[in-house]
Amino acid sequence: MKMMNWFTFAIISLVLWGFWGFFYKIATNYIDAKSIFIWSTISGLIITIIVIAPFFFTGFRPEVHAKGITFAMLGGIMGTLGALLFLFSMKLGKASVVVTITALYPIITIILAFFILKETITLKQGIGILFALTAVGLLAK
């Protein structure tokens, strides 16, 4: 069997995240955001256990590095808090607007990478960022 490439994984991820936002919006019609958060966290833990359990039978051990663990945990905290606030937004707003605005999160990553990691931003990318920020303003009205 041929190993899937990054593009295949990205497309599958895109589809899964599309359903993710859609299912969350439907859930807000029946239960509150905090309850959705609890139930989705439990389901996420179940998937995590199913995915990682086989690795421990093959001798896998997570890597240990203080900075790596710190940043991984900070990422988990930010992602979890972002998901909770996303749910509050979905309860109060239109899915089409909330999902589009929150999907622009890479702009924050790009800006942080520019200032902290000293990564470059091309003129074309800069114009794209300005268009994306303009889109937020247009969608928020």
Topology at a glance:
Layout: H1 6-27, H2 33-57, H3 66-92, H4 95-102, H5 106-115, H6 123-140
Helix pairs in contact: 2-3
Structure description:
With 141 residues, the protein is an all-alpha fold. The chain has two domains: 6-93, no CATH class; 104-141, no CATH class. 78% of the residues lie in helices and 0% in strands. It is built from six helices and no strands. The mean pLDDT is 91.
Search tags:
141 residues, mainly alpha
Radius of gyration: 18 Å
Mean pLDDT metric: 91
Strand content: under 5%
If helices are DSSP runs of H or I spanning 4 or more residues, what is the number of helices?
6
Largest sheet: none
H and E string = HHHHHH
What is this structure, in a nutshell?
The protein has helices at 6-27, 33-57, 66-92, 95-102, 106-115, 123-140.
